[in-house]
Write a structure and sequence with these properties.
about 20% strand, two-stranded antiparallel ribbon, about 130 residues, alpha+beta, two-stranded antiparallel sheet, 6 strands
Length: about 130
């Protein structure tokens, strides 16, 4: 799922997806892509993208972090398509991790495979961002 990509009237969604993938230096074979939900002026609808393989999906999700450094897609992000139950659980984890960040500022906290994980910050990484 691609979130935050501006929606234009009569847009070619496949071209929009290709542009986002190029910013991540990815060239997957897209099987199908379309906007989800009803159109609203205030927020762009997410784009659901179906790819040819699970390996392509994994590669895209790993490369998604590069979007924040791209010029055109700074406000665009990619996340896996989740069920309603998965979205609720993920939201709870995000809320919990926000509290952990303020309580344990000496650690990096992240969600990996549905579990909150923490890594001790070292003196070298305090000045650098974690690449993955």
């Amino acid at each position: 799922m691609i979130f935050g990509k501006c929606e234009e009237q009569n847009e070619d969604v496949a071209e929009t997806v290709t542009e986002v993938m190029q910013d991540m230096n990815e060239k997957p074979r897209v099987v199908e892509c379309f906007r989800v939900g009803t159109s609203r002026i205030s927020t762009p609808r997410p784009i659901k993208v179906k790819l040819c393989s699970a390996d392509a999906v994994s590669s895209i999700l790993r490369s998604a972090k590069h979007l924040k450094n791209s010029g055109n897609n700074k406000n665009t992000f990619i996340a896996p398509d989740r069920t309603q139950e998965e979205r609720v659980n993920h939201k709870k984890l995000v809320e919990k991790i926000k509290g952990m960040v303020s309580e344990e500022s000496d650690k990096y906290h992240y969600i990996g495979r549905g579990v909150i994980r923490s890594v001790q910050k070292s003196a070298d990484t305090d000045k650098q961002s974690i690449s993955e």
